[in-house]
Amino acid sequence: MIKVGNPRSLGLPVPGARLHFGTERHETGGGPRRRLLMVDDDPAFELSFYCGTCPFLFRRLETATQKLSLESVQERLAGALDDPDDGGVIDAFGALLPEGEYLPLLLGVEPRLVVPGQEGDYFSDEQVATWGIDQFWGLPQYPHTPYYRTFETAVDADAHLYEFVVPMVPPTWNERERVEEYVALMEQGRESTAVAISTLDVCQPALDLGDDPSTHWGLTHFLLDGHHKLEAAATAGGPVRLLSLLALGESLAGAEDSARLPALRARPRSTRATGT
Known about the structure:
Layout: E1 3-4, E2 8-10, E3 19-23, E4 35-39, E5 42-47, E6 58-60, H1 74-77, H2 89-94, E7 100-109, E8 112-114, H3 126-131, E9 147-156, E10 159-166, H4 176-187, E11 193-203, E12 215-225, H5 227-236, E13 240-247, H6 255-265
Parallel strand pairs: 10-12, 11-13
Antiparallel strand pairs: 1-7, 2-7, 3-4, 4-5, 5-6, 7-13, 8-9, 9-10, 11-12
Helix pairs in contact: 4-5
């Protein structure tokens, strides 16, 4: 944690916002409706289900094809922000977001790229330890995208915070030359800044289906700007700054939980022993 800003109202009414949260439409008699992150009215990600007892989730959908970078702030983001409000970055990205209350968090992260089903995959490891495998498919949840793990720490004896940075498009879509440029800058000790809209989903299983029945606090940062920077930081093993705009009204967390997040994010990193 570098600095926390004050909660502030940002965004536009949904018809004018490029990004917004929504619920899947179903015809009469359909099943449960999915909670979605939308970009230009297309479903981009399926999110944790509203019930709060289903497994934590972010799942990229077929229509997630766009980044949301802003040319007007690229020069400012090429360096390390020292304050969330530095250089008007929040107001610039606020014009893309849905109307609501946001908590600005300026974080330092050292991302680790994870491929689903491979080493370090939350969905195959920690989530299975709590919820078990999907009862219908007989498999772990599958997010349909590589993602970055950046931080985790204990909330208390029965709850753990897991942090993720999720690219809007997979790292394989990044331009190799730009990634290499950022790697070279990081090797010289230079930091830059990425921007994300974030949610905090607190999920607790209703049944003891796994070996570690605990509450998962899933802090998910959906990248608006900085796809090349995150991949470069993961490649170089170096830090990058992340300006997170936490959507308070769209998170599956109470006001007290959201208020605890800055202090939790400032704690030392710690992993949770599973299967005990």
